[in-house]
Amino acid sequence: MPTIDVYNVEGKKVSTVDLKDEIFGIEPNENIVHSVLVNYLANQRQGTQSTKTRSEVTGGGRKPWRQKETGRARQGSIRAPQWIKGGIALGPKPRSYTYRVNKKEKRLAIKSVLSSKVLENKLVVIDKLPFKEIKTKQMVSALEKNKVEGKALIMLPEKNEAVQKSARNIEGVKTTLVNTINVYDLLKYTKLVITLDTIKKLEEVYA
């Protein structure tokens, strides 16, 4: 069972917390993480790319010249793909790239990334974020005092407008909720900042 130090917003150690092995102490499964990540990226694709076929471009339907005795190759229409401004052959059309992944695989992928954060010392636990008003300066101070540099993901157990709006204007910092976390964000952001309440929520959802 991994044990990690708990700090306050002033960056001072206040206690330690034991993390559940089944969430923060498993052996990361890279294959599952990759599979779920590819699924997430595929589901984000809009699939709106489109090209015009020969039936959709402008141009006459008649032959540009007669079939024989002109010395030129026979042509049926100026809308054919070989003509400039002709239709595109086998071009992309609007489609959906969405496909589903098993829920167990998604859960295993998230647990794998959480466990890797612990192994790499990239998990920062703060006892609580007692923000009563929206203060970006206060959030910057809390992150600096806890040595959170670069890209950071702050995970909350539930919506907290004061915390979320205090962090939204900080470059490289994003807030998310336990119920909406995804593998992409967990991998994109180097540091993961969570509170004791977040740990309890994660254990309720993923245990």
3D structure, described in words:
- It is a single chain.
- With 207 residues, the chain is α/β, with parallel strands linked by helices.
- The protein contains seven helices and six strands.
- Helices cover 34% and strands 14% of the residues.
- A six-stranded mixed beta sheet has the order 2-1-3-6-4-5.
- Strand 1 (3-7) and strand 2 (13-18) form a beta hairpin.
- Helix 2 packs across helix 3 (103-119) and helix 4 (136-145) crosses helix 5 (161-167).
- The longest helix is centred in the middle third of the chain and has 17 residues, at 103-119.
- The mean pLDDT is 94.
* Beta-strand share of residues: 5-15%
CATH superfamily of the largest domain: Ribosomal protein L4/L1
How many domains, in number, for the residues?
2
Based on the structure given, which CATH architecture of the largest domain is correct? 3-Layer(aba) Sandwich
> Order of SSEs, N→C?
EEHHHEHEHEHEH
Q: Average pLDDT, to the nearest integer?
A: 94
Care to count the β-strands?
Answer: 6
Question: Which fold name fills CATH's third level, the topology of the largest domain?
Answer: Ribosomal Protein L4, Chain: A
Task: Report Rg.
Answer: 27 Å
Largest sheet features: 6 strands, mixed
Give the overall form. Answer: elongated
CATH class of the largest domain: Alpha Beta
